[in-house]
Structures are given as C-alpha cells and as structure tokens.
Structures
1.
Amino acid sequence: MSLESVRYRRGSLQVLNQLLLPQSSQYDSVSGVREGADAIRTMKVRGAPAIAIVGSLSLAVELTSNPPQQTAELLTFVRESMERLVGARPTAVNMKRAADELNAFLSREAEKPGVTVQELTDRVVQWAESLLEKDVRDNRLIGDLGAQHILQTTNAPAGVVILTHCNTGSLATAGYGTALGVVRSLQALGRLSHVFCTETRPYNQGSRLTAYELVYEKIPATLITDSMAAVTMRERQVSAVVVGADRVVANGDTANKVGTYQLAVLAKHHGIPFYVAAPSTSCDLSLPTGGSIVIEERPSQELTDINGVRVAAPGIGVWNPAFDVTPHELITGIITEHGVFRPEELRDGLSQGK
Ligand SMILES: CSC[C@H]1O[C@H](OP(=O)(O)O)[C@H](O)[C@@H]1O
C-alpha cells in the first residue's frame, strides 16, 4: 500500500481515494477541475495542503489536455476554475491562497510584451507543479524545527510522547506531513517514545489514516478515542500535543479539525505544551482573529452513519462542524517552515522568513 496522496506527471493526475482507506488503496484519475473539486468536496482528498495541491494540479492537467487558444480565454478559465476549487471546502486557506497567488502571477506574466498564450499556459502548469516539491520541503523543515524545539524545551530522557489529532501526514500533504512530520523527525532522531493518535470522529482521520501511516512506518503508537484524551494526558506522560491547521490567523487563533479546541483546553489543564504545526501556506494574516473563519458544516450522515449503516437514533438533530477554532491563548507555539513562534510572534516571524 502506498502513502502517496497524489501521483502526478504532466498530463496525468491520480489521487489516493482516502474514503476507502485503510481497507483498500485505490487511485482515482482526475482529468480536470470539476473532478478535482468533486474529489475535494467529497473528501476523497483532504488535508489543507493536499487540497491546494490537488486543486491546482487538476487545473494543470486540464490545461495540458485542452489548452486555451486565446490569452483572454486562459485568464477567464483560470480565474473561474480557482473559484470553483476554493468553493469546494471553505475553511482551509491553502486553496484560497493558491488561487490568489496564481491569479496574480498570471496577470503579471500576461502583461509581458510578446508572451504567447501557449507560453502563459506552460507557466501556469509549471506553477502548479512547483507546489508539490515546495510542500514536501516545507514539511521537512516543519518536522525538523518542531522536533528540535520540543527536545530543547521538554524533559523526556526516555523519549518524547506525542498526542496528535486527525491526520496531518503524507495523506494530508504532498509528503512527510506537518504534525506527523514532527513525529517522523523525532523518530528519525531516535528520540520518540510513543504516539497517541485520536480516532477523530466522525470522519475517523485518526483511526483510518494516521494509524495507517504510523503502522506503515513502524512508529510506536496507540489509538485512543477522542473521549480518552484527558485520561491519556493525565496517565501516559504526554510530553506535547502537536496538531495540524487549516487556517492560522494573525493573532494565532487556529482553525483545525473539530476536537482540537478541547485538546488545547485539556493540555492547558495538565500543563502540557500545545503546538500547531503548519506551513505558511496555511496561515491567513488577512484575518485578525479566529472569529472571522468560516467553519464548514458537513452532511449529518457523516456523523449518524458508519459505513453507510445508520447507528444514531432516527429523528435526532445533528450538528456536524468539520472544524473548531483554538484561541491563541491556549497555543504554546506555532511550528512553521520559518521557525517556531509564539502566537504573538507569528506575523513578524512569517514576514522575516519570506
Ligand atoms: C496538514 S493539515 C491537515 C488538516 O486538515 C484536516 O482536515 P480535513 O481532514 O477535514 O481536510 C485536519 O484539520 C488536519 O489538521
């Protein structure tokens, strides 16, 4: 079984259908933007960085197979395609950032004298392709910087114990992962004792995806239910909680998988450091606080049903937000590819890292 969420070569994009994991490892072809948006909306593909990468590559494959003949047509197609992709899932900022950056890039390129529509199309495709390598590079930096920081600030002579939530590994990114990247770097240093991963109801990214990644890489780990987080922190010598992010805003408030906020409250209560691991592509400094973040609400069946079988009482009301916002006061540090910052240092830290 493979841990690659995406398989891409120019003109061909395949995504690992994460709805079928861990039972089966099936790659589905994505031939264009509509299929890319559907794969994101249905959560075949998920994870803030992976959403932006698959969305952008779905545009690249469509442009490769059906290149516009006029520059004006290209500009309109790219703008409308990115709007469609951004609309697939609203909370993670990565796809919106990619859309804004690509539209700005293309506008600048289109102003250059004598540039042809084919040259512009090629530059859009190359721009999308560059996201793959950049994401893996960023994740390895996040992993190494986060591991070093945790080793320097925690006393864990027998090895570090990490509690993590949702899936933030190779299945949520182009590879290596963010919070799971920190786990991988600690493991590579021989300084990881154990990982506790939460089930992460209702989509079960923890039991289906993170557990799959940890077993695959023979990283010592234990699956717990979301409701076991408090007793695990009290009785299992957790050194640090490390989670991912879908949108970190200017004051450090962070939207992440629902259940993250309560982990932060529990970590505070138990005196355990709480870290958000996220690339700068998951940061949105245009929003001053987390109150402005749109929280996606998903179909009630994702909560009431298991494998298509209803387990909740018929007729009960359902609230199924996919994310919650952790206030910056509960966050010890934000681990980025530019460094580890306290929430109040984030804006300056990112601007200096550019
Ligand atoms: C590497 S960030 C992954 C981030 O995205 C997940 O959300 P979803 O599975 O709904 O796309 C979750 O919030 C993770 O922390």
Note: The chain has a mean pLDDT of 97.
2.
Amino acid sequence: MVSMPTLPLVGATPGHICPFDQACSYLEAAAKELSLDQGILEILSHPRRVVTVSIPVKLDNGDIRVLAGHRVQHSDILGPYKGGTRYHPAVTVNEVSALAMLMTWKCALLGIPYGGAKGGIAIDPQNYSVSELERITRRYTSELIKDIGPALDIPAPDVGTSAREMAWMMDTYSMNVGHAVPGVVTGKPLSVGGSRGREMATGRGVMIIVREALADLGKSLDGVRVVIQGFGNVGGAAAELLYQAGAKIIAVSTAEGGIFANDGLDIPALKAYAAENHKSIVGFPQSEPIKNAELLTLSCDVLIPAALENQITEENVDQIQAQIVAEAANGPVTLEANRVLEARGVTVLPDILANAGGVVVSYLEWVQGLSYLFWDEERVNREMEHLMVQAYRQVMQQSKMRQVPLRLAAYTLGVGRVAQALSDRGLYP
Ligand SMILES: NC(=O)C1=CN([C@@H]2O[C@H](COP(=O)(O)OP(=O)(O)OC[C@H]3O[C@@H](n4cnc5c(N)ncnc54)[C@H](O)[C@@H]3O)[C@@H](O)[C@H]2O)C=CC1
Ligand SMILES: O=C(O)CCC(=O)C(=O)O
C-alpha cells in the first residue's frame, strides 16, 4: 500500500466513491502485476503539481463571483502534460487528480510523447451567458499562464468545453506572451490551427475499438445493438459513426433523460433534432422516453457510457446485460462493478484505450501545428486508426500473455512504459 498524497486532494466526500482512490487502486494492481519497485510506485501515485486558482468574474448583472479553477499535472516523464478542461458542477481537485493520472497512462499506452494532466472549474456552463463563459475562460487561462504552454502543458476540451473555449484559451495565452501560440491548446477551431477530424476523434476511436473487439468475437458492427449514455462530443460522435457502420443505436441519453427505439434510432435525424432544441433529445419522434437508470440496464450487445464517472456501480452492475462495455467516458465503471463484470466474462474496454482517439488526434493537431503543415481529414483519421488498432492489439496480446483482464493489461502497458522512462531518466532518487 502506498502512502496517500499529501497534496490537498479536497472534495472526496466520506461514503462516496473517491475517484483518486480508485485511480490509485488500478495503479497499485498494475504495479503488483509488474513487480514494480515500491519507490517508483510511490512517485507515480502522487500528482507532480496541483494548481488551484481563484477566478473573479463580473457577471452580466454586475455582481462579482469568485470561482475556483484547478489544473492537476500528474506526470511529465514522457513529455509535456496533456489533458482536457472540464466545466461541470461536480469538479473537485480529487476528481481532476484522478483524471490527470488516467491521462498519463492513456498517452503512454497509445505511444504518444505526453504526460498527463486535467483541469476544471466547478460550474454548470448552462447557468452562464456566452460572454460570462468567455470572461471565466480568459481569467482561468491568465491565472495559469506560467503553468501551461506548448512544451509544458497543453489543455484540450472535456465535459462542458469545446473548440470555442480552446480558441479563447489560445487567444488569451497568445496575448500574454505577445505572439500567436496555437500549440498551447488542442481541439481548437480549424481557423486558428485546429486539426481536421478532432471533433469526431474520440467517438471515432470508440467506434474503432468496439469494431475490433466485435471482430475478435467473430462479429461485425452491422446490426449490433448499441446503447449510449451521453450525447455530447463523445457520445454523439460515437453514435453517428456506429450508425454509419450499420449498428442499431437503440437508446441514447443526456443529463435530461433518455430515449429508446427498439428498431434503432435515426441518428442523423436525432442530431438535427438536438441541434434545433438546444442539445435536448427529449421528445424525439419515433422514440419513447426512458429513465437514465433504466437505459444502462437495457438488453444490448454493446453498452457505451459516454457521460461521467461512476455510472455502473455495485448498485446496478448485476442488471447490466451488455456483452461489451466500452468506456467512452473516463471512469464510468467503479472498481467494484468492474470486478463483477470481469468475473461474469463481460468484455470491458477500458477508458484509457477506448476513449484515446481524442488525445491521439490532439497529438496529431499539435504535430501539424509545430510543423506548420496541415493534413486532410483522411490522413488524420488514418494515422489515428493506426495508433488505436496498434494499442488495441498490444492490450489483447498483453491480456493473453499475462492472463489478466483488458483493463489490467492496458494499465500494465501504460504504467510499465512510464516506470521504465522514469527509471531511465534517473528521476528516481
Ligand atoms: N471531449 C473529448 O475529446 C474527450 C472526452 N472524454 C470523456 O468523455 C466523457 C464525455 O465527454 P464529452 O462528450 O466531451 O462531454 P460533453 O459535455 O460534450 O457531453 C456530455 C454528455 O453527457 C450527458 N450527461 C451528463 N450527465 C448524464 C447522466 N447522468 N446521464 C446521461 N447523460 C448525462 C450530457 O447531457 C451530455 O450529453 C467524459 O468522461 C470525458 O472525460 C474522454 C476523452 C476525450
Ligand atoms: O485531447 C486531449 O488532449 C485530452 C482529452 C482528454 O481529456 C481525455 O482523453 O480524457
């Protein structure tokens, strides 16, 4: 057992599932499997830096509110810190620390030269106007000016943020340093150096990993019954690409509620409906409403949680009927629920593999920006697919070789590579 970090990991409510403890448990399991040196495990269990800043913001009505913004930098052993920026009311330092650690293993697993980080502000963006969100984002970026940069720490979108926020971050950083620095963030609009294919990348990666897993079971995407929780950047793109590949998307949900259609939803029509209705899918014709809790337990081939952490827990795991659970979100299955699913022989495609398409195309965006040479979408998708399929095969091979489930296999690869680099660099005292 390693010592718990002494950094102020506030926000873990007693009795609740603690994201950072869960992340450390997976790390410890990988360390045990790899017979990792205790000192290396100790180092990897602690985020390198935890930054919390105050963000004073003047609201449109003239009131002043002070928000807390975080950026946790877990590791830069393999390269600059990398990870998304989350705007959601449940953001805490604890959650962001867990997500930062996941980024370290994800980048190492995919073989991209980055460390891991994550940032966030505990707000519901829907409660703020666009100009308030712009002021919040710009002040958050200014407060982090010495902590981020194209060779230091490169934010990207996550829950509640998108290309719009990345453009504001890029502009604020550039104004502060006196020249344009597109490489400070990824997931930017194309107009300021974004990459073709980034918007759909995480969902595309999910589709690729599900396709490969089905192929290993002797099946194809054609006609496969899929349930998706979350219809945002990731869930929406995964739904569209799986639909195009012939899958039947029988249910999807947002925080507001879900919809179900036994013969499959018309996803292009649903996307158009959501675009017209402020992202709401409720009331979509030719579908019936379904509660979020019920959606997760529907009979299906593939369940794709693409919203938030801790959705499949000890409480509902026995009712999960899917043969494959593809973790499009980060940490949607709790530690205990994961044990139950694995023991039942359900294929759990772990987050650090299944949702890595986003950070892979972020890396390709950064590479394009640094080389001042931009690729067409076909090339971006091809390069991403190559890295995703390669990582999938390595995980399968590791799983067979070590006789361990896919998550532990993925972790041993990611953690093992970081530990090796740590030891080779001599950072280990
Ligand atoms: N955006 C990206 O490129 C990446 C995102 N991820 C992960 O994917 C997950 C989703 O992220 P995004 O799609 O970017 O966020 P988003 O903000 O675009 O969408 C989130 C979706 O989840 C829904 N949702 C929230 N709570 C829900 C609930 N209780 N039940 C059902 N739906 C609910 C929201 O209504 C929304 O449709 C997060 O775990 C994120 O960390 C992972 C890799 C990359
Ligand atoms: O694109 C990126 O840099 C990070 C995406 C992210 O936050 C994630 O993979 O969880």
Note: The two ends are 20 Å apart (CA to CA).
3.
Amino acid sequence: MAETSLDGGDRAPVVMGGEPGSYARSVLTERHPALISRVRDAHPYTPAQRGRLDLLLEETASGTVQPLRPEAHDRGAWAAWGMDEHTGVPWTGLPFLWAESYFYRRLLGAVGYFAPGPWQGVDPFEPSKSAELHSSDADEEMQALDTVALLPSEERDRALLLSSVWGNRADLGFALSEREGPADPGADGGTGGAAGEGLVADESGRLWELLGDAERVCFVADNAARELLPDLALIDLLLASRRVGSVVLHIKPHPYFVSDATMADVLAALRRLREAGGEAAACGGRLREALRGGALTVRAHPFSCAPLPYSAMPEDLEADFTGSSLTVLKGDLNYRRLVGDRWWDPATPFAEAAGGFPSPVAALRTVKSDTVTGLDPVVAAELEAGGIGWRTSGRCAVVQVAG
Ligand SMILES: O=P(O)(O)OC[C@@]1(O)O[C@H](CO)[C@@H](O)[C@@H]1O
C-alpha cells in the first residue's frame, strides 16, 4: 500500500503502552492481568495450561517480550510483524496496538489453542460470548426487530444503524474496566443524554448515500454476540432492500481481543436469530440463504489479527477492499488500525487520518481508546474541557466516512 498519511508521518505520535497514568498502560497492567485470571477459570484447564497462563502474567507484568516458540505455525508472520524487533523489550515499552495484539496471540498459545490435541480450536472466550449471546438483553434486542420492521424506512434505517454503532459497547474486554456508558445511548436517536455523550460525529447521511447504490460492501466486523446481532441485522437490511448487491463479512481467523467474532460466532448468532422467532428469525433465514447463494460471503484474513495499522495490509487484502464500493469498519480497534493508533488532534479531518485506505471507508465506533479524529473543533474542545475520560468511556460514538 502506498506510503500515505495512514502511516501518520511525523504529525501524530504513536500511542505507546507505557505512558504513566495512561489508558494504554492501565490496559496492559490492569485489564490484561484481570483477563488472564478470568480465562484461567473459563474452562477446566489443566495445571499445565494454567501454569502457562501464570507465566504469561508474570512476563507481561514484570518481564520482557518473549518470542513465539520456533515451532509456532505463525512464527514467520509475527517475525514479519515485528516480533524479533520487540523481543527483549518490556511490555510497557511497546506501541500499545502491538502489545495488545501480541498479548492475545500469546494468551491463545498458553491455552493450546493452536496446538494439535484436545484443546485445539477451543475458544477461551466462548463462555463469555455465549452467555452474552443468550442473555435477556440479546432477547430484547431481537424482539425489538419486530417493532423496527414496522417503522417507516428512514426510521428503520436509522434504528438499525444506531443499533450497530452502539452494539460496539458490548465489548467484553471493555467491560473489564467497568466503565459505565450511557444507559441506553441510542434511545434518543443516539445524540446521548448528558453533554459529551452519544454521537459526537455523525456522517450517516454520506454513509447512506454510499450504501444507496453499492455493488459490493466489505463489512469488517468487530465483536460477537450483542454486537454481531445488530451488525447482521444491518447487513440483512442492506441486502434485502437491494441497496447493496453483495456483502463480504470480514471476521477474525481465531479468537482475539476477547469478544472479536470468529466463524463459530457468526454461526452461533445466525442460529440465535433463527431460533428467536418473529422478524429476527426471518432475518436469520434471509442471511442463511444469502450465505448459501453467495450474496453474503465471509472472509477471515490473517492480517485481521495483526498488530499493525491497515497501512501495512498485504496486497490480497488491499485488493479485496479496493474492489468494494465501501468498506465499513466496526469498532474501536479497527478505527485505531485505520488511523494508525496515533495521538491525533481530535479535530484532524477523518479523511486525512484515514487517507490512503483503498476504498471509501466508514467507521462505526464507540470511542473506547485515546485515538480520535474528525471531530468538529468546537465539539472536540468541549469534550477535552471535560477531561480525557471521554476518549475511553464508551459513552461517545462516531459514524465517520472518508471518500
Ligand atoms: O475493537 P473494540 O472491541 O471496539 O474495542 C477493543 C478494545 O476494547 O480493546 C482495547 C483495550 O483492551 C481498546 O483499544 C478497545 O477499547
């Protein structure tokens, strides 16, 4: 991919993991240890698996980055992604994005996710994903589809778009930080209740223009369960209304960042929709047929779990996006990878920070980390005046479009 502002140049420093008092540091030194202890109890892991988790905890807390074992199937990929360069560095001495991504790869290694044997392919986050998918909140969201289906088309479109945007708050890793977002941020049209909540950037008008006649849309999903359900409902709307000819749903090739959706999660969500009855079941049935007929295809590219910005994407993935009328990126991590996880001035135009992406691109994201762009300067100043917490609370969201 051409050198572009996506690499950020020297205009905005990369978010590092070790800044004292920073959100990034709290993730590495508080959220990740808490996650390890939760994963330890997620399944009846053996003493050997628990021992490897304990070693990972010790390494990330006070040690230096250790490389993947020589026999690791993806050692070459991680070497290309900077593993050797970062080996021997304290975990808090890394770029935040790299540290987090490598942490989740090491976590999978500790529980034997990739190793031949009984635990191969067992998702350490499945219990929490499944509990969320079968929660009463999920029931209510699927029942709401019956009401949404009766709305005038513009109201229906907005309801499903906002549901997808705010579905991004359903992030199990984020929940570990126990930050409370607005009770129901989408209830009043997503503008939020108190100042500094809700949609702080809303380019949905431009988004619908692009979706109005899109031959092919790449939809890069984020989290499973309560985020994936509204994402699938939105994809169904786009296909069933024939505004979009086909959708390529990008998911993760393996578990990642606790909640990120894998194919198993897509199938579980489809099953959940079809079992829910009413409009949810109709939606699930249409999506199943779209998969069988090819209007909906699923991709799981290895780079989707890479520790790098999209500016470093390989040519085949770039070609996939290039061939699309629009790429929709869901969630905070995809946003960070789109704009290079840098300390941008929040008023930096989104198109500038995301410049160079190979298709028109839309970000549907709740703001859960420090990287923010594309805000009106007055809005940015108001938010900043309230302190830096707005960047990581999940109480703000953006719908932003470049191209
Ligand atoms: O991409 P998502 O699921 O919306 O958010 C991922 C996330 O929870 O993980 C990181 C902290 O662990 C943050 O960057 C971000 O808030």
Note: The radius of gyration is 20 Å.
